Amino acid sequence: SSGIASWQTVSDMKAIPLPSSTTPQTWYSQYYVVQSGQTVSLSKGAICAGNVHLIVEDGATLNINANAQNNAGIAVSGGSTSLTIYGQTANTGKLTSIPGKYGAAIGGNYKTDGANITINGADVVAGENPYYSAGLGGGYMNKGYNIIINGGNVTAQGHAAAGIGGGYQGEGHDIIINGGNVYAADRSSGYDGAGI
After folding, report:
1. Nearest CA to 117 among 154, 81, 71, 72?
2. Do 56 and 85 form a contact (C-beta atoms < 8 A)?
3. Residue 10 contacts residue 3 (beta carbons within 8 Å)
4. CA dihedral defined by 169, 173, 178, 184, rounded to 10 degrees?
5. Contacts of 7 (CB under 8 A, 6+ apart)
6. Helices (H), the chain
7. Nearest-angstrom CA–CA distance, 154 and 28
8. Does the reported pTM lie above 0.90?
9. What average pLDDT score do residues 37-56 get?
């Protein structure tokens, strides 16, 4: 299994439980967890400011909405920042991330790359209503790269952009799928964005 239950427990990692919030959240180089049975809502999105590890336990729900133009639902722009998402054995923990206009669901803000994203498990929905951006990857006119999917269920939808990869007119590269169930598409009408 790609889930954390096969190799480490939440208590071993001293993960920080995520609370709901109506203000923008900044995540640092730590483990965070949404615990089984909980529903957590972040109505102003989150920014990765380090090497972030996010665990969505089986039976947990994490809803993220940027609610601001130009912002990603979860901003992770590469460089010294990264985001690694874990599920548990059944991958029933659900993460839904909705961007603001021109931002990726998970990845870049407006005219910002989206990079260094790894999904090991959970049920991840990225991009219910993107606009000229990738579901998983680059914001408007920027790149999406260093994206790895090892497991879980991943739905990534872009708009006039890749589902997984670059935003509108942005390139995508170094995208690796080792496992899991992946659906990636451009949800726009009249454009030719790639799934991946």
Report:
1. 81
2. yes
3. no
4. 0
5. none
6. 10-13
7. 24
8. yes
9. 97
